[in-house]
Amino acid sequence: QVQLVESGGGLVQAGGSLRLSCAASGRTFSSLAMGWWRQAPGKEREFVAVISRDGVSTTYTNSVKDRFTISRDNAKNTVYLQMNSLKPEDTAVYYCAARATWGIPRDGYNYWGQGTQVTVSS
Q1: Is 66:100 a contact under the CB 8 Å cutoff?
Q2: Residues 61 and 68: beta-carbon distance below 8 Å
Q3: What percentage of the chain reaches a pLDDT higher than 90?
Q4: Which helix (DSSP H) or strand (DSSP E) does residue 60 occupy?
Q5: Which residues pair with 37 in a beta bridge?
Q6: Rounded distance, CA 99 to CA 34, Å?
Q7: CA-based R_g, the chain, Å
């Protein structure tokens, strides 16, 4: 089992920045690829970014490329999402998720956090 706890959400003005953190426990963190997903009210949960076990490879959804950065610290069992130049359309609940192998499809993610709210005002 893996437990994931997100933090760092909040209210920010458009153009501002936030850094989300996700602390993992229960299984060797370095054996897991880690992803961030988000869900806006009335919309499907969507993929945001994923990082490989060793932190070398990353992939982003097009709408956040060049604005968001995913990173990880395996010594601290933590994955981060640095979000810059935030837009109102980034408003959502952001979820941290873990999977055993590299990939994007949602059904590959076996573990999910409880989510943290990010609200971007215009």
Answers
A1: no
A2: no
A3: 89
A4: strand 58-60
A5: 47, 95
A6: 6
A7: 13
